[in-house]
């Protein structure tokens, strides 16, 4: 009874809400610039060989950007196919109304999963005769052909037919009446390394082996079967890797995997990581900050507490190594990054208040912080940084 009277007196009932009613920018969020994705795809397509198709790789929820947003804008930019890692990712895109061909880059090996793939018009990656037989039987059962891509291992030692057995196995696969081979592909293991253009490099040897296999099965770049080898790095190396389709991930999102890049290629990062200031406090000299007390103030220090931490995907090993941006100024992060929060030294700033927005990744004025920078400082790769952001961070689409 007392609670009802209090609710009535202060009109608290109007604040009753559901998750979907909470402002996505209440705490921390990722802004996804759809137009940047579209521009990147259009620009990258100008680098392709004639009649070479563009597969947009949107696995891992579009590298953490939101697979639906990425797919929509990649298709606007001219992507003719999409690549995902899992069956669930492919089905999700179909549920969004995506009609373009979708290749599942991971391995489906059970009859049940392959039937689900077939019913959702998804193309599986096939790495053995066993799965080919299952797909052929599924196609026969439904009186249709099952479209798929064959993968051959040329040096990754992951998925794919063994290269020394592929020619013989391909001849057998061609006899299966209810299979349609939409593509044949392999994957480069080291195309982002500095020596990738060296004739003796792993990358060039993989390309040579792939070419030799294609010749042995009488396929060339003008064949209706889509031949693809290049990831982002391979695509940017040169046109020898293009064949008649490329699979582009990182570059589409605005980052080059190569140290040396065409200066005319002006990729636009599509992801901005932003966070609100939750609290501000002032500490005296000699006061420790956060777990372990690894940072101790050397002067009177003004701290901003930001509502983001390693549970959101900010690596804990970046503690004390990164900056954040506010109004075109950089401020250092101090102390250990915690599960849900981190501290920033804003000493000297009078404009930052509780509720102010700070940029962890992206640009503000002429200041920019890139996932490449975070990757270098945490001894990892930018792919891992982008794919680490958790679903707790809302994705907000902006132009």
Descriptive overview:
It contains 12 helices and 20 strands. The chain has helices at 2-10, 34-45, 59-63, 67-77, 87-95, 111-119, 129-142, 163-173, 202-216, 232-237, 371-377, 382-387; strands at residues 28-33, 53-57, 81-84, 102-107, 123-126, 146-153, 161-162, 179-185, 226-228, 245-248, 271-283, 288-289, 295-296, 301-306, 323-326, 329-334, 342-345, 357-364, 367-369, 395-398. The strands form 3 sheets. Strands 1, 11, 14, 15, 16, 17, 18, 19 and 20 form a 9-stranded mixed beta sheet that branches. Strands 2, 3, 4, 5, 6, 7, 8, 9 and 10 form a 9-stranded parallel beta sheet that branches. Helix 6 packs across helix 7 (129-142).
At a glance:
The chain has 399 residues and is α/β, with parallel strands linked by helices.
Mean pLDDT: 94
- Give the strand tally: 20
Largest sheet: 9 strands, mixed
Strand content: 25-35%
Shape field: elongated
* Rg of Cα set: 25 Å
Distance between the termini: 49 Å
| Poorly predicted segments | none
- Count of helical stretches: 12
Give the helix level as a range of percent: 25-40%
The structure class reads: alpha/beta
């Amino acid at each position: 009874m007392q609670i009802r009277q209090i609710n009535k007196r202060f009109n608290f009932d109007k604040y009753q809400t559901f998750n979907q009613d909470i402002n996505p920018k209440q705490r921390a969020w990722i802004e996804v610039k759809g137009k940047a994705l579209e521009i990147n795809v259009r620009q990258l397509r100008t680098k392709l060989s004639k009649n070479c198709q563009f597969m947009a790789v949107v696995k891992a929820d579009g590298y953490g950007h939101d697979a639906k947003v990425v797919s929509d804008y990649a298709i606007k930019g001219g992507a003719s196919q999409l690549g995902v890692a899992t069956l669930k990712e492919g089905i999700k895109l179909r549920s969004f109304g995506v009609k373009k061909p979708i290749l599942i880059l991971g391995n489906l090996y059970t009859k049940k999963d392959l039937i689900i793939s077939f019913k959702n018009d998804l193309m599986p990656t096939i790495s053995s005769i066993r799965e080919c037989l299952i797909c052929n039987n599924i196609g026969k059962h439904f009186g249709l052909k099952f479209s798929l891509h064959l993968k051959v291992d040329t040096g990754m030692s992951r998925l794919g037919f063994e290269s020394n057995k592929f020619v013989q196995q391909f001849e057998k696969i061609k006899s299966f009446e209810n299979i349609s081979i939409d593509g044949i592909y392999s994957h480069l293991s080291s195309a982002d390394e500095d020596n990738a253009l060296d004739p003796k490099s792993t990358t060039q040897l993989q390309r040579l082996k792939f070419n030799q296999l294609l010749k042995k099965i009488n396929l060339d770049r003008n064949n209706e079967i889509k031949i693809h080898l290049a990831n982002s790095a391979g695509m940017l190396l040169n046109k020898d890797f293009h064949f008649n389709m490329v699979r582009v991930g990182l570059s589409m999102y605005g980052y080059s995997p190569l140290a040396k890049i065409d200066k005319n290629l002006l990729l636009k990062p599509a992801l901005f990581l932003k966070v609100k200031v939750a609290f501000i406090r002032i500490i005296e000299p000699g006061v420790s900050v956060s777990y372990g007390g690894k940072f101790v103030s050397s002067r009177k220090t003004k701290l901003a507490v930001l509502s983001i931490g390693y549970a959101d995907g900010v690596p804990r090993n970046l503690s004390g190594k990164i900056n954040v941006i506010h109004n075109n100024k950089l401020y250092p992060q101090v102390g250990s990054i915690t599960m849900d929060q981190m501290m920033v030294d804003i000493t000297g700033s009078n404009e930052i208040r509780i509720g102010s927005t700070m940029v962890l990744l992206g640009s503000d004025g002429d200041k920019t912080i890139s996932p490449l920078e975070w990757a270098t400082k945490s001894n990892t790769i930018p792919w891992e940084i982008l794919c680490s952001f958790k679903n707790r961070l809302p994705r907000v689409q902006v132009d």
